[in-house]
Amino acid sequence: MSLRKKILLGYSITLVLMGLVIGWAVLNLASLGKASEAILRENYRSIDAAENMIDNLERQDSEILLFLLGYGKDGEASFLKHQSVFLLWLARAKDNVTIAGEGELVNTIERHYNTYIIGFSELKRLYAISLTDANNYYQQSLSQDFNRVRSEALRLRDINQATMFQASRRAEQLATQTVVSTVSVGLIGLLVGLIFNLMLSSRLVGPLHRIVEATKKVAQGDYSARVPTDTSDELGQVAVEFNLMAKKLEHFHSLNIEQIVSEKRKSEAILGSIQDGIIVLDTDLNISDLNPTARQIFEAGNEPLTGLPVGKLVNDRRLLEVLAATVKNGKTSREDNEMNVVSVPRKEETQYYAFTISPIIGESRELLGEVALFRDITRLKELERLKSDFVMAASHELRTPLTSMGMSVDLLLERVYDKLDEKSQLLLTTARDEIKRLKILINELLELSKIESGNIQMDFQQCPLQPLFEKVLSVFTAQAAEKGIILRSKLPADLPKVSADANKVTWVLMNLISNALRYVPEKGEIFLSAERIGDQVQISVIDNGPGIPIEYQSRIFDKFVQLKGETKSEGSGLGLAICKEIVRAHKGIIWVDSMPGQGSTFNFTLPVPSGNRRAEK
């Protein structure tokens, strides 16, 4: 029998028992109702008839007294009226004879009443002859007939009342028996149903308990657990499938446990041998694992850290933000790599570690966690600082002689240019141009060194972007028209202001547009746009030029990196590096999206002032 049929059978038996109890109660209630109806039908009508006969008989006696007092006509008429009513109730009493002896009593009442009526006729005759004879007749004969009829009517009422009382007692006993029997049948039905349901639930739940116990054993590693299959219903099928699963798990466990342990040890050995720090996190940013190098970096010692929030180990706000963004987006956020550095103070010096965050993606593309890799770049930072110091010092030292050389060359060009031959004039002019180029290079190096060292002065204000775009476009309108290049922009109407140094942002835009003009072919297009993304505004300079080769895109913002275009480049290779440092000083990021042959898009972000940020954030 299937599990469904067993459950339906249990409910059916319970419903049948309920139906039996209800039927028994209905039958008893019907019997009680019939008993009550019998009381009303058999006795109440006779009592009502007796009461009305007594009442009308007494009224007739009163009318006789009025007749004797001299109210003859009125008394006789009223007597006849009550006589007809008495006879009516007498007839009803005769129709409702239900008690032994009640019929003879009713006949006696009728016979004596007829005698009483004849006596009234005799009274009227004597009254017409002599009032005294009439009074004597009433006292001696008619009043006795009245009392005889009245006592017999009272007896009729009394025997019906006694019978009614007895019937009421019988109805009360029947009601008591009904309650007792109904409760008894109900309790028996409840007990039978309870016993049956307990038996049925035991048969249904028993296999489930065995399956649960076996499941717990399997979860604890006991793959030899089995469930007895003593039924053929759905639970029996579940037990069969469970036993098959446990058997396969036992076989799989015996085959793979040694391999899994071996692979785990290999992974732990590899993780421990890596010189970079590694922290493995779950999706809740809790530590799943870390290697000895990471413990050394963050001075964790040997204390247990598995399962703890990463904030217990790391207190760098920048690192925690990137970790949270990676979990939220499921991929590494686009960030400036030079900003992904965490500093760890030591007693002797501060150490610097560049970190890379990579999400862990499962086979079904769900996010399982993330891995943070920390690489020691302290020496690189020191070398970069020394290089910047050297560049700044060298630039300062070269600026004075270059100025002198420039003044000398300008003086020669002014005074002796016409006296020189053509070759000497060319050499002198070339020297002047090279000195100018060196001056631009040295000024850009000094500017870049100031930005990198944090010595540049920034005038942050709440700036609308529309005037900046208009200013930049006006500078390059003539140059773009000369090359047949379309230069345009588009800004959303609700674009908020940005927190920025207007002059520095203008310089960045001019540098990006200048580079685009250098590489975009004739009849090309350069497009400026901006949009709000969260608490930042993203500004884009889009062109349909030849694009940037893949091998250059990762280092396009490095110093002295130049692309070879159709025209000879006279730049120093520092423009984009300065742009990157200016954007970093604004706490923004800059990057490029480009496909060779499909143009380039330079993007950078600027923060929105806190007063203009969206409330929902």
Question: What would your notes on this structure say?
Answer:
- The chain is α+β, with helices and mostly antiparallel strands.
- It contains 13 helices and twelve strands.
- The protein has five domains: 196 residues, Four Helix Bundle (Hemerythrin (Met), subunit A) (Up-down Bundle), CATH 1.20.120; 46 residues; 103 residues, PAS domain (Beta-Lactamase); 71 residues, Signal transduction histidine kinase, dimerisation/phosphotransfer (DHp) domain (Helix Hairpins, Orthogonal Bundle), CATH 1.10.287; 152 residues, Histidine kinase-like ATPase, C-terminal domain (Heat Shock Protein 90), CATH 3.30.565.10.
- The strands form three sheets. Strands 2-1-5-4-3 form a five-stranded antiparallel beta sheet.
- One of its GO terms (cellular component) is membrane.
- It is a multi-pass membrane protein.
- One of its GO terms (biological process) is osmosensory signaling via phosphorelay pathway.
- Keywords: ATP-binding, Kinase, Membrane, Nucleotide-binding, Phosphoprotein, Transferase, Transmembrane, Transmembrane helix, Two-component regulatory system.
Write down the CATH topology of the largest domain: Four Helix Bundle (Hemerythrin (Met), subunit A)
Mind telling me the CATH class of the largest domain?
Answer: Mainly Alpha
Categorize the overall geometry: elongated
CATH architecture annotation of the largest domain: Up-down Bundle
Helix content: 55-70%
Structural class: alpha+beta
Note the total helix count: 13
